[in-house]
Design brief:
- This protein is 28% helix and 28% strand.
- A 5-stranded mixed sheet has the order 3-2-1-6-7.
- It is globular and about 40 Å long.
């Protein structure tokens, strides 16, 4: 049983849609969400992880630290390695809402996990 509200991290280029790839994100918008509402709490700056064909492991550690208190991280795209690293700290990587509006997507997700 999930207790609400929950924290959700969002990777977004412009702040309107879930439009940033996990490895390219320089910040994550942290929302507090419940089935009836969601509010932006803060913006957490991070170093981007993706450096072409390889990843910066120290940046990955910083990203994981920044989102570890969130139930899920919403991204436009994420690779299998970062997905596993998120799962290992209890954060679900969600790319089902890529390029969709942030608040509508978060509310849909929360209602789905609430069984509403």
């Amino acid at each position: 049983m999930t207790t609400f509200p929950i924290k959700l991290a969002v990777a977004s280029k412009e702040g309107l849609a879930i439009s940033e790839h996990f490895g390219h994100a320089k910040q994550f918008k942290i929302y507090e969400a419940a089935p009836e509402r969601c509010n932006l709490l803060e913006i957490r700056e991070v170093s981007n992880y993706c450096l072409g064909q390889h990843g910066d492991q120290s940046a990955m550690a910083g990203i994981l630290e920044a989102i570890k208190d969130c139930r899920a991280v919403f991204v436009a795209k994420i690779g299998d390695g970062p997905t596993e690293k998120c799962r290992a700290i209890g954060v679900e990587a969600v790319s089902d809402y890529a390029y969709e509006a942030i608040e509508d997507s978060l509310l849909d997700y929360v209602r789905r996990i609430a069984g509403a």
